[in-house]
Amino acid sequence: MALNTINPTETNAWKKLEMHYNEMQKASMSELFQLDATRTEKFNLKWNDFLIDYSKNIINQETLQLLQELADEVGLKSAISDYFEGAIINQTENRAVLHTALRAQESAIINVEGQNVVSEIYEVKNKIKAFTNEVTSGARTGYTGKPFTDVVNIGIGGSDLGPAMAVEALQFYKNHLNVHFVSNVDGDHVNEVIKKLNPETTLFVIVSKTFTTQETLTNSETIKKWFLSQDFGTTQEDIAKHFVAVSTNIQKATEFGINPNNVFPMWDWVGGRFSLWSAVGLTISLAVGYDNFDELLQGANEMDEHFKTEEFDKNMPVILALLSIWYNNFFGAESEALIPYTQYLQKLAPYLQQGTMESNGKSVGRDGKPVNYQTGTIIWGEPGTNAQHAFFQLIHQGTKLIPADFIGFITPLYGDNDHHDKLMSNFFAQTEALMHGKTETQVQAEFDKQGVSAEKAKFLLPFKVFSGNKPTNTILIQKLSPKTLGSLISMYEHKIFVQGIIWNIFSFDQWGVELGKQLANSILEEINTKTVKNHDNSTAFLLNHFLINK
Ligand code: F6P
Asked: Which residues are catalytic (predicted)?
């Protein structure tokens, strides 16, 4: 079934939201709290180990009501069913979108073109499990009979960011294997990684859905060449022992020299940026063990069930998506910050940048017409407290409205409460400061207390005032574990989906990355032949400068 093509701005709810925005744009959150002692009770969600307090937003109950009406009017409910049931919702590529099937229970029935795909998924999961156990136990060895000590994930985009983010996030649960990632076609990247490796004990996992991606193939060839260098006494046959692949393109992977038994299949109904749940997560499984990988999937599956079955007013991904629409489309917010209060999630923002911006960075509606409203939010962020000492100044006192998600955990993994209490006091303090700001009266009272002269106070006062009223969501989770990480990622995936449905765009294709790839191929040809062809003046000038000075 095809998704509908409703322009959200033509819905009744949108028009009502525009009028409602006129009333709310000057609303003060601090005042809203003063007026309603039960505000937090109304605007928080509890589910499993998650608590989301979204009361520090410029909303009232009518805002939420109207946003839910918008979701109803664009047919979100039936779109969710289509998504989970394997309908061809990636219409421009004629594909279902079923990363949720990868984490479904074994008993589930999910059909793609009339065929239940769950048994195939479990076959691959069993293969991941067996392979992981062989590598981590030392039963599988390299060409000189030594167990593997290092794993190198070679991939880019979704074939890199998901595994890299999860391995970093789950470092606490890691085993003895050293894990490396090679993604950029920049030769300095791969050479820096190679420098750290012993060919006898290194396993290479080439991850490419298509097995045609320039960056990944170039890096794989460079590594293969290094692996076969005479100093190591390796032979062509040894490639099969040290290289495995994850791909839909089994033929290309075998042409590279990989034993077909060591190709982990994936399916075209798994989008690259949502693929860490498939065999693309092999490196995660190798790093933290299969059971932890499975827990990650389990956590995602539980969030899937929540999203699929919960009413919109209690549904975490839906509420987060609607709040984001409120700021993006009515307040004109240009970006959103994502601030995890744990160093482990330092790669969360780059990971979700692909998920969010490759999915919803679209300007043509599902009806093929240009949209006349803003889509795709810009996501950025860094862990707190580091972020506080870097860019928080702009969030507090800059001219832009930047709604932010604060993600924190109640239990620290090493049990260091001294550090954790300091970390979390910052976590709570920041959202409070962002909301209340600091008034002239408060600043003046501080000056009086400090005995600041009247003249100095008059000069300094405007700079020390914080307007406040900056919206935040507080996402408080019991503990960072494979399971809660799975739920967290799944929550954001569904937020992306909801937004794409409301914006009437196709979230699961990525035609926008093609043009640059094509041009790069023809420019490479010109660099190789040292002949600069027809370009605009600027590009020709730059290419000539590069060729002359290279
Ligand atoms: O950047 C475009 C893209 O297709 C991403 O969507 C994908 O994750 C990445 O390239 C890598 O693709 P592949 O896994 O096929 O190498």
From this structure: 358 (proton donor), 389, 517
